[in-house]
């Protein structure tokens, strides 16, 4: 497995990462009925815990150990729980029941990886019979 988390481990250890959810996610997902969701490259947790608080059954996928170690406490502090999964999302494939939602935020992509990320999201959401809700956006600068 190729794990791309080393640089991010250092970044998350050196400086606090924001915890408020992305405003676009709040706008798009705020009124959706809760279901089963994935935070792809979820980082230390700003969007995934927010969705969990809203009743979503959320897994957060990330390559960074530092991110994952911060994400669950953030969710617990907010009164919810998430499932942290350490993986390379470009290689990860879903097992079990399908998902209703996949979030991708602040992608900071390597060349070629946005298309791979969206293919992963499509796999995740298309595997079952649920409605498809994909939110994908990228920013050029870290918040
Ligand atoms: C800019 S941070 C964004 C975190 C989060 N999406 C947010 O908006 O706060 C990018 C994250 O992507 C993760 N990442 C980068 N490439 C990855 C990969 N191939 N598989 C899993 N995680 C990856 C990094 O570890 C990091 O946590």
What key attributes describe this structure?
5 helices; alpha/beta; 143 residues; disordered C terminus; Rossmann fold; binds S-adenosylmethionine; five-stranded parallel sheet; 5 strands
What does this structure look like?
The structure is a single chain. It contains five helices and five strands, in the order ααβαβαββαβ. It is α/β, with parallel strands linked by helices. The protein has a single domain (34-136), classed as Vaccinia Virus protein VP39 (Rossmann fold). A five-stranded parallel beta sheet has the order 3-2-1-4-5, sandwiched between helices. The longest helix has 14 residues, at 113-126. The radius of gyration is 14 Å and the shape is globular. Residues 138-143 have low confidence and may be disordered. The structure holds S-adenosylmethionine (SAM). S-adenosylmethionine binds at residues 4-5, 8, 41-43, 46, 62-64, 67, 88-90, 105-106, 108, 142.
Short description:
By secondary structure, the chain is α/β, with parallel strands linked by helices.
Largest sheet: 5 strands, parallel
CATH class: Alpha Beta
Proportion of residues in helical segments: 25-40%
> Strand content of the residues, in percent?
15-25%
Structure ligands: S-adenosylmethionine
Report, as a whole number of angstroms, the end-to-end distance.
29 Å
CATH fold annotation: Rossmann fold
Low-confidence stretches: 138-143
Q: Say which CATH homologous superfamily is assigned.
A: Vaccinia Virus protein VP39
Rg, Cα atoms, Å: 14 Å
Backbone structural class: alpha/beta
- Give average pLDDT, whole number: 82
* Outline type: globular
Q: What count of helical segments does DSSP give?
A: 5
- Counting structural domains, the number is 1
Strand order of the largest sheet: 3-2-1-4-5
Q: In CATH terms, what is the architecture? A: 3-Layer(aba) Sandwich
Along the chain, the helix and strand elements come as: HHEHEHEEHE
């Amino acid at each position: 497995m190729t794990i791309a988390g080393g640089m991010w481990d250092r970044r998350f250890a050196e400086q606090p990462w924001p915890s408020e959810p992305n405003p676009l996610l709040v706008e798009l997902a705020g009124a959706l009925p809760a279901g089963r969701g994935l935070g792809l490259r979820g980082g230390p947790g700003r969007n995934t815990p927010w969705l969990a608080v809203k009743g979503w059954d959320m897994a957060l996928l990330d390559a960074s150990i530092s991110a994952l170690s911060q994400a669950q406490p953030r969710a617990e502090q907010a009164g919810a729980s998430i499932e942290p999964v350490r993986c390379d999302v470009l290689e990860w494939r879903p097992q079990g029941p399908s998902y209703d939602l996949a979030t991708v935020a602040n992608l900071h992509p390597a060349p070629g990886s946005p298309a791979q990320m969206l293919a992963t999201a499509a796999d995740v959401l298309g595997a079952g019979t649920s409605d498809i809700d994909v939110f994908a956006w990228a920013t050029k600068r870290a918040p």
